[in-house]
Amino acid sequence: MVSRDTWIVGGAGLSLVLFAFVLSAWFCSLVRQWAPRLGLIDIPAGHKGHKMPTPLGGGLAIWLATVAVLALGASVAGFGRGALPIELAKHVGGVWERAGELGTILGLATLIMFMGLVDDRLTLGWRLRLGVQVALATVLVLSGIRVTLFWPFNHPVLGGAVSVLWVVGLTNAFNLLDNMDGLAASVGLIAALLFVGAQVAVGSLFAPAVLLVLVGALAGFLVHNRYPARLFMGDAGSNFLGFMLGALTIAGTYFRYNAKSSSFNVLAPLLVMAVPLYDTVSVIIIRLREGRSPFVGDRRHFSHRLVERGLTPPQAVRTIDLVTLAGGLGALLLHQLDAVGACVVLAQTCCLLGVVAILEVSRNPFRSE
């Protein structure tokens, strides 16, 4: 039987999702009206697949909804603690202990969102964008938020380097993934939910609460971004989403020494992010093999390759969503598995990606020669 404590905490989490969803959907409506006046319009050209000029700025709406809900939550925790049910009030102290950590993550994610917004408006060079990403990820690490999995990753230098690489990698992975209507937001939503499950399984609530706000904000954006999209998140949104997921996976808890949980749960981020990382690595390899810069956009992404196999864009997005979910579901079990079980789950995800890779390079039987 589910306890009252679980019902109350679960209800609070659902409230965060719903509130962020409503705010995000509303902010997106406002952004769609104001985007033309701000010059935030994506004009079809080059490798872009949309046919009509489409407003950018969805990332600004996602950021606004996320910040607004987190600010309201902080206000309630700070000034309305006495009115909260005891099941929630007992967690407020722990939340305040990590308020500075959340402020750092949100502040840095805000800076990277504004960089993306400038890029949407003026088109910045890739060296400047990458430099800003590395700088902000480095600041995150220097603030104390870094990987501390186990030896040798608990060494500050090695753990810091891995953390910077992870955050910058995910930021760019979602920037690359934002190439088809509804794709980056839906994959981000699925990933965030899986991270919530993997962390709640070991009793963590801080990062899952923030992730649930992000889930609601992404869901509200998808109301406007589903095919055919009426609003794009732009680089502002993809950079913000990737940075937040990267930072929150580092700040999150996957293993507790005083609990009966497996240390292999720390591998959850690799399972959940398997598809975005596969897309990033495969695109870079294709571009380098063809003698082109990996930083110049094209239509060689995972989603575009699926369309070349005969799928429609919505079918390609749903396929990637399902592969992301299938590859990441094992993350929900890692806290219960020993070394053999964890290897089996990792092998299952690798096999899934292997099947995808084979299908991608096989001849399309439905296309005439």
Automatic annotation (TrEMBL):
It is found in: Cell membrane. InterPro entries: Glycosyl_transferase_4. It comes from the Bacteria. Pfam families: Glycos_transf_4. GO terms for biological process: cell wall macromolecule biosynthetic process; cell wall organization; lipopolysaccharide biosynthetic process. The keyword Calcium does not apply. CDD domains: GT_WecA_like (cd06853). Mg(2+) binds at N175, D235. One of its GO terms (molecular function) is metal ion binding. Its cofactor is Mg(2+). Keywords: Cell membrane, Magnesium, Membrane, Metal-binding, Transferase, Transmembrane, Transmembrane helix. It is a multi-pass membrane protein. The chain crosses the membrane at residues 6-28, 60-79, 99-118, 130-151, 157-176, 183-200, 206-224, 236-255, 267-286. GO terms for cellular component: plasma membrane. This is UDP-N-acetylmuramyl pentapeptide phosphotransferase/UDP-N-acetylglucosamine-1-phosphate transferase.
